[in-house]
Amino acid sequence: MSDPCCFNVNTPQPPARPWIPLARPSVTRASCIFTVMCYNVLCDKYATRQMYSYCPSWALNWDYRKKGIMEEIQHYGADIINLQEVEMEQFYNFFMPELKNQGYNGIYSPKSRAKHMAEAERKHVDGCAIFYRMSKFTLIKEHLVEFNQLAMANADGLEHMLNRVMPKDNIGLAALLQTTENAWDNSPQDAALMKQPVLVCTAHIHWDPEFCDVKLIQTMMLNPSNIQLVLCGDFNSLPDSGVIEFLSTGRVSQDHKDFKTFSYKPCLEKILSCDKPNDFTHSFKLASAYNDEIMAFTNYTFEFKGIIDYIFYTKNTMTPLGLLGPISQEWLTQNKVIGCPHPHVYSDHFPLLVELEMVPTIPSPMNGIIR
User: What is a GO molecular function of this protein (predicted)?
Assistant: First the structure.
């Protein structure tokens, strides 16, 4: 094989990632226990030799990688699966048929540019997908968040909203799910409580570090109504960023450094609540399932290694029972794995997986939960 790479054909498979228990499920009260996966699968058109020269071309090939990706997804068997960088053609011809056979249904949207492209090009545009296990959840409603459309609608002529935010065609995708009777242990006495709404939202936020203001604006635009929420995705933002501060604490200062020198205040005041004079806020009480003590990186390439993928959950009604730990650092070091993809690792992102226990609450009216 003339393909220059650092892969040794004798390199062993990485050891199984550990499961980290965090809490024990309740045995005395009704609870719904479900698992959530978040995974950026690295779509084919981005998996170039120029970008990933350390990976042999046969291992970058989509026909090779997609089998490994699907084996991973099926191995972990999450009840809710959130995927990013899924090409439109691959969603309909590969992911959906494969997962339908495993008892899932799913929704999908490509990035906004797909609307303006011919069929031949549109099918290769990547986007976000949400799959849910039909025995545990039913789909009530789905909603697409197009950040560029929101930017245009709220710009009020503001130059940097039009010139920086609007041209980026990233999206968020939301599925309003409802639990089924099968989802519950120690079923609630009130049958109505078994039909709990859960809003699952996934997003792929703009990548460029020079546009940290755009990342923050896009995240703020997700802003769904108040409901039990699982929010996950590739936020392309480190734990000390304004994006993660906003999601974790419920607020971010209007003077945050990630806004750079741009004032987005007039636009954001139309989208968000501002109950403190100098803060933008949201009403969710969110916590991140993962932190840098659990995993040092979720994205692992030659040029960048860091945490940019997250699973957030509503902390007043959901408790993490356990989560999937990191890939073995010893395996990476011993086998001189300088970046991924790798013949044994099928994306440059590692899938995240958390098991959540949700307690019943009085369901809010379904109308208006997704705008």
Answer: 3'-5'-RNA exonuclease activity
